[in-house]
Design goal:
It is built from 13 helices and two strands; from the N terminus they run ααββααααααααααα. With about 300 residues, the chain is mainly alpha-helical. About 5% of the residues have low confidence.
Length: about 300
């Protein structure tokens, strides 16, 4: 006698109970018409081509801005020029919601670049004097590094920090972070020297470029001079904004030339540590009337932002 099959056994057990769902569990789950909500399924503001939660995750908080910053950014007209009337009474903004990004990577005390790069500056100088090529070769290479950074400073300022973002929202955001913020809030002491988010990647790129082209004993000397040039640039930039009564001729020249760039002729006087490359490329601007107007505007902005 043949054993009963599974279907025969089920039919013999009697009719199915009414209301019982006999659909297999795997099929019931796939047939669910209502998808479960996720963090990305709710409408969100977009940043570039990404929704805001995705952008925040991908960029580790680098696009997770405060509401105050978003308001200023939305109002900004994409002109890297003098501060708008709304921003003249503010000394600074908090940019990032993430406190680690804001206070560790996106801002910097003016003394910190000297801490970050002192080892490279010192080692390069030591190797320039005691290295295998001798001081007659090493010291000129070291000084060439200082000069190389002054050209890099000029080039970045002229062709990167004042680029035209067009209609791109992402480009507008990047331009404001790179340099627009500084022109709108020129007296923010914590965002005046380049923060790690900017200075460290540039240093890594320069070192990699030197390493690809030159022997390593020359690389360390040249890079040491380059980092010294960067440090001079950062501290001179701080000086032009916050030492408001320079006594030396060169101090007065640098502060006034930079004021002309900030408040009158925004695409001229691109050199900060030196007017050398402005003179070479024909972008140096100076007249008694222009300097007088720029310094008057400088003092008005400094007075408006003082103590805020």
């Amino acid at each position: 006698m043949q054993p009963a099959s599974a279907s025969t056994a089920r039919s013999a057990a009697g009719p199915r109970r009414p209301g019982r769902d006999t659909t297999p569990r795997c099929r019931r789950a796939s047939a669910d018409p209502v998808p479960r909500p996720t963090a990305l399924s709710t409408p969100r503001r977009t940043i570039g081509a990404m929704t805001e939660p995705l952008a925040v995750g991908v960029t580790m908080g680098l696009l997770d801005f405060t509401d105050e910053f978003k308001e200023v950014l939305d109002r900004w007209d994409k002109k890297v020029e003098a501060p708008s009337p709304e921003n003249r009474k503010k000394a600074r903004l908090r940019v990032y919601k993430n406190p680690i990004v804001e206070h560790v990577f996106a801002t910097s005390h003016p003394i910190l670049p000297g801490v970050w790069f002192a080892g490279f500056i010192g080692y390069g100088a030591w190797l320039a004097v005691t290295g295998p090529r001798g001081p007659l070769v090493g010291l000129p290479i070291y000084l060439a590094g200082v000069l190389a950074f002054s050209l890099l400073e000029y080039s970045l300022h002229r062709w990167v920090f004042h680029f035209d973002p067009g209609d791109s929202d992402f480009g507008k955001t990047m331009l404001f972070l790179l340099h627009g913020y500084h022109h709108q809030f020129p007296n923010d002491k914590w965002r005046l020297v380049a923060p790690p988010l900017l200075s460290w990647p540039i240093a890594a790129i320069v070192f990699a470029l030197y390493s690809a082209l030159l022997p390593m004993d020359i690389v360390w000397v040249l890079f040491g001079g380059t980092t010294l040039g960067y440090l001079l640039y950062d501290w001179i930039h701080y000086y032009t904004h916050h030492f408001r009564s320079p006594r030396t001729r060169i101090g007065k020249l640098l502060r006034r030339a930079h004021a002309v760039h900030h408040y009158r002729l925004f695409h001229l006087n691109m050199g900060i540590s030196s007017p050398l490359w402005d003179l070479v490329f024909g972008t140096f601007a100076w007249s008694d009337e222009t300097v007088k107007e720029a310094m008057a505007e400088t003092r008005r902005v400094e007075a408006g932002q003082a103590g805020t």
